Amino acid sequence: MLNRTFLGVQGLVLVCVLGIATLVSSSGCDNITRAPRPDPAKFTYPSTVVADSSGDWVYVVSTNFDGSNSGGTIVPIEVSTKKVVSAGAVEVGSFAGEMALLTDADGVSTKAYIAIRDDDELIHLDLVRTDEGIAFACSESENKGLAICDDSRRLEVTSLMKDSVPEDLQEDTPDAGDPYAIAIGAPLPGQDDDSAQINPLYLGSLLDGALLIFTLDSDGTPVFRKGATLAPGIHSIIERQVTPRNRVLIVSNRIQAVIHIVNVTFNSDGTVDVVVDEPVRWDQVSSTGDYFRGMTLSLDGTALYCAFNSPSSLAILYFGQDGRPVPRALVPLYGKVGYVATYAPEPGRELVYVTEFTSDALYAVDPVSMLLVDRIPIGGGPYGLAIAGDMAWVANFEEGTVSVVDLDPTSENWHQEIERLK
């Protein structure tokens, strides 16, 4: 049985690879076969769900955790019909981390960016909308069957930060292996009215604790600008805009009980200045070795909600006058919490939803009363979470399914799993 804590993925893979290499060596390499390509109609250890800006689509990332296929996939699901649109899917590398979408000036999601842990890559893809639906595209040539990305869409990130500093500083500069966290920031000011939209992109290394800062050029290609050293364990990133050129990054850490604060300035000449501030520290109630994971802002932007595992809880923080998040409360939960999302059917009725991996549940928390409202049973090993169409969409890692939960309080199915997609 797989480890229910969903930790140490690359270590497990390394052991498996070494074992396979030994077997191949002893057999004289007589019967080597490539793993089959993934089936886009199936979810294989899905970990991430992202909602399209339109609310009409969600995208599910399968990780290929067991290595049974040649890679993982990103698969669109139509929200209104709950139909898996396998024709629009794409194969990516194994052990994907988070995925972020780029939205244009008209509010349309046009591109996707995904961290690939197995290959230490950042992949960028186009979102193509047609009368038949939506599809991922990342190849100059026509793909027969399941799409796959050209090498030009894959950026190996391991040594980007180390290579950007003088040689005498490289020894003290970490690699950026095991990229996991990813976020796209608000557009930067252009040089004139005709300038193309330029957004920052942030990428965090789970293994090495490196934060990489990119800008996206006119065709969406990421261009590395600057790096910063935080600490191993980077899980998720949120940007808050202070001025058009000044941003504050809030970075969760799952190995240490801290939230990193990073100040970033995008200068008009294209250079980037980075100042790593003192992290926000939470007084440890227990020491589990597993701390902050997914985060989200409140709908009005005044509070920060974080999944916290020491002890299992929803951490609520409010932003002070200096813009730093200040710990306010821990709402007790149970098990291993993963990702967080907010939903309000009308103003003033915000609820916070949290996935819980070990007991197969989705929690609903009232952030005002700071009380647990509901525990919703769903599929096995839930982790990634997105909200679209008055529904929560949850990636069930262990079961290989996606749970759909009704969030409409006027519905007779409120807070019930109404469908489980396989």
3D architecture notes:
The structure is a single chain. By secondary structure, the protein is mainly β. The protein has a single domain, classed as Methylamine Dehydrogenase, Chain H. Helix content is 5%, strand content 47%. It contains two helices and 32 strands. The strands form seven sheets. Strands 1, 2, 3, 4, 5 and 10 form a six-stranded mixed β-sheet that branches. Strand 3 and strand 4 (83-84) form a beta hairpin. The longest helix is centred in the N-terminal third of the chain and has 19 residues, at 9-27. It starts with 8 loop residues before the first helix and ends with a strand. Residues 1-31 have low confidence and may be disordered.
Summary tags:
6-stranded mixed sheet; disordered N terminus; 2 helices; 5% helix; Methylamine Dehydrogenase, Chain H; 5-stranded antiparallel sheet; 422 residues; mainly beta
- Characterize the overall form: globular
CATH-derived architecture = 7 Propeller
Which percent range describes the beta-strand content?
A: over 45%
Multimerization status: single chain
Low-confidence stretches: 1-31
Individual helix count: 2
